[in-house]
Amino acid sequence: MTQVFLGLPTAPRGVGHLRGEQSFPDAARGALRDGQLRANLGHATSTIRGKRAAVVGEVPDWAELREAGRAIKAATMARLDEHLIALEEQVTARGGTVHWARDANEANEIVTRLVQATGADEVVKVKSMATQEIGLNEALEAAGITAHETDLAELIVQLGEDKPSHILVPAIHKNRAEIREIFLRTMPGVDETLTDEPRRLAMAAREHLRERFLRATVAISGANFAVAETGTLAVVESEGNGRMCLTLPRTLITVMAIEKVVPTWRDLEVFLQLLPRSSTGERMNPYTSLWAGVTPGDGPQEFHLVLLDNGRTAVLADEIGREALHCIRCSACLNVCPVYERTGGHAYGSVYPGPIGAVLSPQLTGVEDNASLPYASSLCGACYDVCPVAIDIPSILVHLRAEHVEAQTYPTPEAVAFRTLSKAMSNPRLWRLAQKAAGLGRFLARGKPTLPAALPPPASKWTRTRDLPTPPAKTFTQQWAEEHRS
Amino acid sequence: MKVALFATCLVDTLTPQVARATATLLERLGHEVVVPLGQSCCGQMHVNTGYRREAVPIVANHVRAFAGAEAIVAPSGSCVASIHHQQAAVARRAGEHALADEAEALAGRTYELSQFLVDVLGVTDVGAYYPHRVTYHPTCHSLRLLRVGDRPLQLLRAVRGLDLVELPGADQCCGFGGTFAVKNADTSTAMLTDKMANILGTHAEVCTAGDASCLMHIGGGLSRLCSGTRTVHLAEILASTEDAVTPHQTTRPAFGTDSGSRR
Q1: How far apart are CA A274 and CA A284, in angstroms?
Q2: This prediction's pTM
Q3: In CATH, which of 3.40.50, 2.60.120, 1.10.3470, 4.10.320 is domain B133-249?
């Protein structure tokens, strides 16, 4: 296995959902031809973009708030070990139990064991990226435990035997007619007269879920934040399903990736302003649940916190790439990304799609396991502009491209070409010769303003959809030199 | 002022008329233009494709070619952004600290054309005449890395005869992205198609921008569609005057005409 950073372990293969079966260009090819998907995505992303822009625009000190968010994350990552130990102490002191999971396999084993110890054969789940990342539902199923997703969009994805395609809106690729069809097909006892009216769909899901909330004795959640100084966990959500899961069952198991910790209670002030405006375009988050340990007679009487590494320590070791760990999963970068808007999330092959996924997934798995993702961007920079914690995603993408190039043991044809070009471009005399050679391409055009549409690869990748200009007989510098020769 | 013109590798090799227009414009405004013949490339394509080590000698060549220049102007937001944001960083990473310092100093004197005209020379009316319906596409790197803002629009609004129409979804990437255009050709084409739909919706004769690279992509797509709309670089529009309206400066493609050969 290729390990990129100082031999620190990356997320293991064969478990979880960080690696796609196809490269990005191959996966995108199919998605781009799906007209329904393009329409759904175009509509959904432009709506959220507009909402976000409006509520961010009304905050006079957004730039300062964003800088505060960035600074808190950078400072936290610099002493992540200390904050995690402080968090463990506080959670333990308040009656919770902390488990440390090196990777997806360990986390899945811990959670399965904890559920089995309660004797339950089903659990309710709050939407969680970490448990999607490690493939927890599949691991539980293998142990005979049924996991019920309770977030509406996650439920749609689960019932449709589909995969999430967006961090915040996992079913963004489905429209309401498609959702109605899934409900009619998969929900036991659903009203046959169900229409695609959003309210009717929500009520059907509500009825379906309510029964499971009341029956469940174990809930599994992720966490948006954990406060080290108080041992407080935080989950933000919009539907109230999270609140049900976090309060009704007897046992609560939270799987949290290690970068979610913040040092102090006051830090939440910054992130609870940045997150809702960036993600759902709301001024304030509808349901913000906070809890610390267990409270006798109130809420879950057993609380377990599973701290997940799964490649994050390796990311932390890379001084350029580590900024990706600052992400608060708002998904603003997905909504503004012109690539994501057209391909959708499945093309990225990982639970983390879009620009942040293109820098996070390859780092968690090691670049070689997701080598096409750093190139899945035109480097337009829209993601960096909207990121609430100012992650310079384009620079990390460029860095990871170099990591990929430098990891090759044998020179690829591309590398040979770029090295030759580098030699030419560093030497004016050779460069003039190279330009002359390029100029010979004009003879292919036989007097026409553009080159033929059918050129051999790799030029064909361009000319299949775009004309190439016929090179001029003389370059500008050549013309200038001739005119100014004195 | 003595201005050193950085043509950029793409313009020099494929669209020399853009560099010619830049020189003509600056000379018309009363400045002396020099073209250092040792110039080649800023190194951006290498850096952005992952060849940052191989970019270092290219940066060194650029620094050598422009050493001592008072002001350097390039008709490209993207290349100037790379000079500002990447050159010193790749040199420093390779341990070439002296080169990094020189690149940094040079970057401080390097300007994208519209920035140079508006901020350094303080002109928005450059005396141009261009009687065509034109829409402007703000290229991503000029918009988000250089923050040129509405400078190109200020310049275009002052052009006599020019009918400027707003481009819907202007801030959306055209899908060029350097090697992205070939490595992810399908996605690039999907982005281009939407950009072309917006351009054609304006019924403009000409789509202009500050980057010949993005224009080569957009223009290549428009040309393939046999659409009547062409791409013309901002410098070519600003260089046009009543005296110099030739068939070359009307709505012909920004590429495909060799400005050196007057017919």
Answers
A1: 9
A2: 0.95
A3: 3.40.50
